[in-house]
Amino acid sequence: MIKVGVIGSGSMGSGIAQVAATAGHEVVLFDTNQDALEKAMNKLQKILARLVEKGRIDASTSTEIFDRITPASNLNEMQGSGIVIEAIIENLEIKKSVFSRLEEICGDDCVLATNTSSLSVAAIAAACKNPNRVIGVHFFNPAPLMPLVEIIPAIQTEEAITSATRELVGSWKKVTVLAKDTPGFIVNRVARPFYGEALRIYEEGIADFATIDWAMKEIAGFRMGPFTLMDFIGNDINYTVTETVFAAFYYDQRYKPSFTQKRHSEAGWYGRKSGRGYYDYAEGGEMPIANENKELGDQIVWRVLVMLINEAADALFLNVASKEDIDLAMTKGVNYPKGLLAWADEIGIQKCVDGLDDLYNEYLEDRYRCSPMLRRMAKSGNTFY
Ligand SMILES: NC(=O)c1ccc[n+]([C@@H]2O[C@H](COP(=O)([O-])OP(=O)(O)OC[C@H]3O[C@@H](n4cnc5c(N)ncnc54)[C@H](O)[C@@H]3O)[C@@H](O)[C@H]2O)c1
Predict the structure, then answer these.
(1) Out of 14, 118, 188, 235, which one is annotated catalytic?
(2) Which 8-state DSSP code applies to residue 144?
(3) Is 382 a catalytic residue?
(4) Is 117 an active-site residue?
(5) Best residue among 41, 88, 91 to mutate for probing ligand 1, ranked by most atoms within 8 Å of CB
(6) Which residue in 5, 121, 228, 336 has its CB near the most CB atoms, within 10 A?
(7) 335 carries an active-site annotation
């Protein structure tokens, strides 16, 4: 079995190290910050102990997994790895300098992977003399629990590297999808309206946070309403992702961030981690009561859902991924109750087109433009599946 190098021992790096070690690989975990590395090793030990307590693994397996992870304080220890997965700070210049140093340390046959969420894999690969073996391998947080990994070949990546990496990550009991090197890949692009349209509905005064959350959870079947989810993710982080995607798409109005979220972030109302977000999590804080009006709920669900379907259809239209991978990404990466394209078939493509056109005609905003993919399909009477 190949040795796996992981760079960066934060939330993602330590999770990825756990995944690879659990799959039986020797793992070398490197961080420039000794303190972070020590904390990561302690955390890993605790997580593995908890898995034993819960009866998921036995004590000897837990020890074996932990012993397979070696903390390293020198990047040279990546030598001999079959793959190195970088999960450091989201900064292009720093990532590029790490990749160019890695190229000197690792053998020619070592795959160099990045866990970036928002940077271009092509830009990171360009730091290497041989960019053909650089690839995006995007895990979701927490990596040991979330089944999805997006595999993102850059335009420079060799076909054989893509298939070998996909096979390797698949052998770690992960569901892999192939995504084009475009902003947000699949999940962080297609999911934007779940937050953006919910925020817009609130800003228009159609419903409050609790009512929108109730509708999306109880009527549409999402595991969590958008405001509860944004409070989990952190409004600072979710806002930054939205802003990054918006800029990366040359300010396409479909991805326009919301002032409501910006203000929450500026106020330090990040969500659960700060004790207050859209909801008050302080002791004694009261949860607002939703207006469980079915007609209003249906209206909310329809508007968010048709925008999500449009985004999924447009990702397919622009060949970001296959229809199967787009649906898998949303069900396995963010627990959507159904694949959005399968959902569109169920609703009826013409009905989706009409819904989007109604929104467009009302607001005359580019945000509501219907994807040519949906329009063409409606015209020809085709379905996605
Ligand atoms: N947190 C998420 O939900 C999430 C999900 C998917 C992908 N990502 C991506 O994964 C990467 C890491 O995110 P995170 O949330 O784990 O960050 P984090 O802040 O928890 O951890 C980053 C770690 O990298 C270390 N580091 C910084 N510069 C380094 C360098 N030059 N060499 C070695 N180590 C260095 C830091 O000391 C820190 O321990 C980012 O690219 C992020 O976009 C994050």
Answers:
(1) 188
(2) T
(3) no
(4) yes
(5) 88
(6) 5
(7) no
Task: Report the Cα–Cα distance between both ends of the chain, in Å, rounded.
Answer: 39
Over the stretch 215-230, which tens digit does the pLDDT of each residue have? 999 999 999 999 999 9
Tell me how far apart the alpha carbons of residues 337 and 217 are, in angstroms, rounded to a whole number.
10
Q: Tell which one of 7, 9, 42, 89 to mutate to probe ligand 1, the residue whose CB is within 8 A of the most ligand atoms.
A: 89
Q: Let me know if 62 is a catalytic residue.
A: no
Q: Which of 120, 136, 153, 137 is nearest to 19 (CA)?
A: 137
Strands 3-7 and 111-114: unpaired
The amino acid present at 187, given as its one-letter code, is: V
- pLDDT tens digits, 66-110: 999 999 999 999 999 999 999 999 999 999 999 999 999 999 999
Among candidate residues 283, 157, 290, 276, the one with its CA nearest the CA of residue 212: 290
CB-ligand 1 contact for 115 (6 Å cutoff): yes
Order of strands across the sheet that contains 81-86: 69-72, 27-30, 3-7, 81-86, 111-114, 134-139, 148-153, 175-178
Ligand 1 atom with minimal separation from the 95 CA = 31
Q: How many whole angstroms from 98 Cα to the centroid of ligand 1?
A: 13
Q: Per-residue pLDDT averaged across 152-164, rounded? A: 98
Q: Single out the residue of 313, 305, 311, 323 nearest to residue 376, CA to CA.
A: 313
Q: In this structure, which residue's CA is closest to atom 18 in ligand 1?
A: 10
